[in-house]
Amino acid sequence: MRSIEATSAYFEQAANQLDLSESMRRLLLTAKREVQVQVPVELDSGEIATFIGYRVQHNAARGPMKGGLRYHPQVDLDEVRALAALMTWKTAVVDIPYGGAKGGIAIDPHQHSARERERITRRFVDVIHDLVGPDHDIPAPDLGTSATEMAWFMSQYSHYHGFAPACVTGKPVEYHGIAGREEATGRGVGILTLKLLSRLGLRAPGTTVAVQGFGNVGSHAALFLKSAECRIVAVSDASGGLYRADGIDVLELSRYQHAHDGRVVGFPGADGIDNRELLALDVDVLIPAALGGVLTAANADAVRARAIVEGANAPVEPDADAMLTERGVTVLPDILANAGGVTASWFEWVQNRQHYRWGIDRVRQELDRILGEGFEQVWQLAQSRQVSLRTAAYMLGVGRVARATVLGGME
Ligand code: NAD
Predict the structure, then answer these.
(1) Whose CA is nearest to atom 31 of ligand 1?
(2) Of the four listed, 8, 82, 129, 381, which is most buried by Cβ atoms within 10 Å?
């Protein structure tokens, strides 16, 4: 299923509940601006390579547009468009004053040296700098990009517009970034998992958790939940998976991973498990934190978890979502579950604009507060309207954007 079909299906479910007019649906689903640009760069070999870059600015009714910049060979307009809309609903669900955007360049970052990636990033900024900026559209790291690309982005943007640390978030701590941003998405997944457990009448100690993907989001979620005494019985990454019934020491695993080329396989004391088996484990909580589209109509029936917390963007396709909801599996949707990253990005932007620094404790405290409020509002709406948490989250996000759109004169 194309990414845009999945996000549009969820949007329509919420729009029906909100009784939105056809004209408002069309306005909210149409991006404000979509650009495709040529990015010609000299490679280390001296050869000229031409790449394609995208930026989709979906909606600015609630504030400057916010969203990642991904480097991946399969990046295309359809995917970027879907992810930009997702950002609009996500920032609205947690009520931070942003709209939604997304961008990308169709390259395989692993095929390029750091110098080439720097030239590609700076050239992309040369082409789009007039379309973005601290009050307009603020990129952040995404698949295939990191704090380093954000530093290059800010440096190049500042050549044109003067010192502007708030033009991009997710920067290195030594270069106008903030402590706590890197862990924020995974920590947020952990915070929200605990709030969900409490609402489901489960206590964290001993709760069993399986995590697909032990990257930035999955590893920080696992570490946070382990510190709350949950039992992380399975984790996986692209190299394979691990299972241990009495719990994996994820702190040790994290150290092992750093020493073993970023892979989890081979970690002592755990059995091997493949991703298909991991998704079907009999656990309290399943956290897909790797890729989109991993739970489909073909494998949703095999899921035995009591709850699913979407660490990744769009890991559950709409058909699978309906099947899981029907079976009473509680799904905490991506637009709330992984909103910790954009929330901490907002904290970074606020500090950059004030030329001020918060300590890590304040970042964590504010993150907990903002996500906690978002969770309670979504939970209450789901209860009062008797809808799934996903539909409630979309209702909250889409409803806020629709109201701001009208108030702002079709902004
Ligand atoms: P990452 O690259 O750090 O980690 C991805 C992990 O998934 C890696 O461990 C990788 O080995 C694993 N993986 C890849 N293919 C796999 C497969 N077939 N089976 C199992 N594991 C596989 O990426 P990340 O930043 O952790 O992002 C993960 C997901 O979360 C993505 O969908 C991303 O869009 C979403 N997300 C990330 C953030 C953020 O702040 N990092 C914010 C919101 C959403």
Answers:
(1) 312
(2) 82
Which helix (DSSP H) or strand (DSSP E) does residue 234 occupy? strand 231-237
Residue 287: CB within 6 Å of ligand 1?
no
Nearest to 401 by CA among 16, 56, 135, 15: 15
In DSSP terms, which residues pair with 133 in a beta bridge? 137
> What would be the CATH architecture of the domain defined by 18-179?
3-Layer(aba) Sandwich (3.40)
Dist CA 297 CA 303 (whole Å)? 11
Pick the atom of ligand 1 nearest to 83's CA.
34
For residue 213 and ligand 1, the question of a CB distance below 6 A is answered with yes
Whether 212 is in the pocket of ligand 1, judged by its Cβ within 6 Å, is yes
Strand pairing report for 65-71 and 99-105: parallel
- Token readout for 196 is 């969900």
For residue 309, list its beta bridge partners.
Answer: 332
Name the 3-class secondary structure at 386: coil
- Ligand 1 atom 29, closest CA: 312
Using one digit for the tens of pLDDT, what is the confidence trace for 265-291? 999 999 999 999 999 999 999 999 998
Q: Give distance in angstroms: CA of 341 to centre of ligand 1.
A: 13
Taking only the tens place, the pLDDT of each residue in 293-344 is: 999 999 999 999 999 999 999 999 999 999 999 999 999 999 999 999 999 9
Catalytic residues: 102
Q: DSSP strand E in 60-159: where?
A: 65-71, 99-105, 137-141
* The overall pTM is greater than 0.90: yes
Task: Name which of 333, 334, 395, 344 is nearest 367 in CA terms.
Answer: 344
Whether residue 238 has its Cβ less than 6 Å from ligand 1:
yes
Domain boundaries, the chain: 18-179, 182-337
